[in-house]
Amino acid sequence: MDTNKLRSLCPALANKTYFNYGGQGPLPTPSLEAITTSWKQIQELGPFTTDIWPYISSEVSKTRGRLARLCNVPAHRLALSENVTTGCVLPLWGLPLEDGDHILISDCEHPGVVAACHELARRRQLQVKTLPVKQLRLGHDQQARTDRDVLAALEQQLTSRTRLVVLSHLLWNTGQQMPITTVAAQLQQHPAQPYLLVDAAQSVGQIPVAEAAEAADIYAFTGHKWTCGPEGLGGVALSERMLTEAHPTMIGWRSLQDETRAVADDPDPFHHDSRRFEVATSCVPLMAGLRCSLELLEQAGSDGDRLECIRTLSNQLWSQLQSIPGISPLLEGPPPAGLVSFQMHAEATAVPPADVVKALGAEQIWIRDLADPICLRACTHICTSENDMAQLIDRIRTLSAMGR
To answer: Nearest 10 degrees: CA dihedral of 324, 137, 311, 203?
Structure first.
C-alpha cells in the first residue's frame, strides 16, 4: 500500500508531526487544485447565468452519488450537509416525537450533538436518558465482548417510551468502536422501534462504514477529518422511514420540490427524498475537492487495507505509550482504529493536559486534550510515518521523566 504518495501531497505534513486527524485532516494539493479549478469554472460560466446551472447540477449529483456509494445507500437517501452537527441536527429536529418520549444518548457523544438533544428535549418536553459506554475500555482484541456489553447496556436502558437512540460509530474520546448494525437490529425488535442516530465523525475515511450507514436512520459524517477533504462539506445517510416520517426543520429553496415558488396552501411542498433536509446555497467548489480526496484515498488502498495500516500504527503507539511509566492508555487493549487516548498521571507530571499539548506544539508535534474523560488524544492515519511515531513517543517519555 503506497501511503507515502498521499503524505507527500499534503503540505501541512511537510513541517510538522501531526496526530490530529480526528479534528481535521490535511488537504492534499490535488484536492486544493480541484477546488480552485471549480471556482474558476464557475466564474468563467458566470456565477448566476443560464450556463452555470448544468455545471452545478452535475457537481451536486456526482458528489451525492459518490457519498451514497461510500455509505452503500441509494443516492436519494444521501443528503449533503456542511458538517457532522448539521447532518445530525437537521433530521433530528424533524422526528415525529411526542411529549414525554425518551431520548437515550450515550455518555460519549460530542457536545454539539448532546446540546442539540437537550434543547430538543426542553422544547418538546422529552426525557433524556443516558446509555453508559464510557466505562467500556477493552481493545480490538476483545471487540466481541464490548459488543455484548453495549447491547446489554442498551437493553437495560430502553423503556417503552424510548423513541431515539444516539450513539457514535467510533467514540471520539475513548476510541472504542460501537456495534451499530447489531444495535440497529436490536432496536427494530423493540416495540417502539426507536430511531438510531449515529455520529460518524470519526468513522468515515477510517473504517468500513457501509453496513452501519445502511442500518442507521441518521448516519452523519464530514469530509474534513479522516478523508482529508475540505472543511464545510459532509453528508448524512438517511433511512427510508426518515424520508417518509421526518419533517424538514431549517427550510430553504433546496428543500422544495419547486424552488421557484412557495404556495401558501400547498400541503406538500418538500422533496420526498433526502433533499428535504438540505437548505440553501452551498459552496460548490468544495465538492470537487472532497471527491478528489476520496479518490486519493482509494488509490492508496482499499478500506480494509487502510484500516489495517491505521490499526498497525495505533497498536504500536498504544503499546509504546503503555511502556512509559506514568502513562496509561484509556483502552486496556490495542485500539480498534486510529484514536489513541491516554492519561499522564499526577505522579508522572503535574502539567495539565492542555499544557502538554502546548509544550508539544512548540516543537511542531500536534495532539489534543479532551475534557471528558480528561486525557490526551493522538490519531494515527495512513499518512502517519514511523518518524512521527518516534518523535511523539520520545517527547512523551521525556515529559513523563521530568515529572518524576
So the answer is: -130
d(CA 13, CA 30): 15
- Are 269 and 133 in the same domain? yes
Residue whose entry in the numeric block shows the C-alpha cell 486519493: 296
Which pLDDT does position 348 carry in this prediction?
A: 46
C-alpha span between 392 and 103 (Å, rounded): 40
Q: Cα(367)–Cα(19) distance, rounded to whole angstroms?
A: 5
Residue type, 370: L
Tracing cell 479534528 back to the chain, one arrives at 23
pLDDT at 4: 87
Report the alpha-carbon distance of residue 30 to residue 289 in Å, rounded.
8
Using an 8 Å Cβ cutoff, are 80 and 282 in contact? Answer: yes
Length of the chain: 404
Distance from first CA to last CA of the chain, Å, rounded?
41
CB atoms within 10 A of CB 180: 25
In terms of residue numbers, what domain contains 395?
A: 4-27+302-402
Residue 316 has pLDDT above 50, yes or no: yes
- Return mean pLDDT, the chain: 95
Q: H/E element holding 106?
A: strand 102-106
**Residue 127: DSSP 8-state:** E
Specify if 111 maps to a domain: yes
Average pLDDT, integer, range 126-145? 96
77, 175: one domain: yes
Cis peptide bond prior to 373, omega within 30° of 0: yes
Number of structural domains in the chain = 2
Whether 139 contacts 334, CB under 8 Å: yes
pLDDT at 1 over 90: no
Q: The domain spanning residue 279 has which CATH number?
A: 3.40.640.10
Look at residues 266, 295, 324 and tell me which one is the last residue of a structural domain. 295
174: nearest Cα among 359, 391, 328, 313 = 328
Residue 341 belongs to some domain of the structure: yes
Looking at residue 256, the DSSP 8-state letter turns out to be B
Residues 19, 378: contact at Cβ < 8 Å? yes
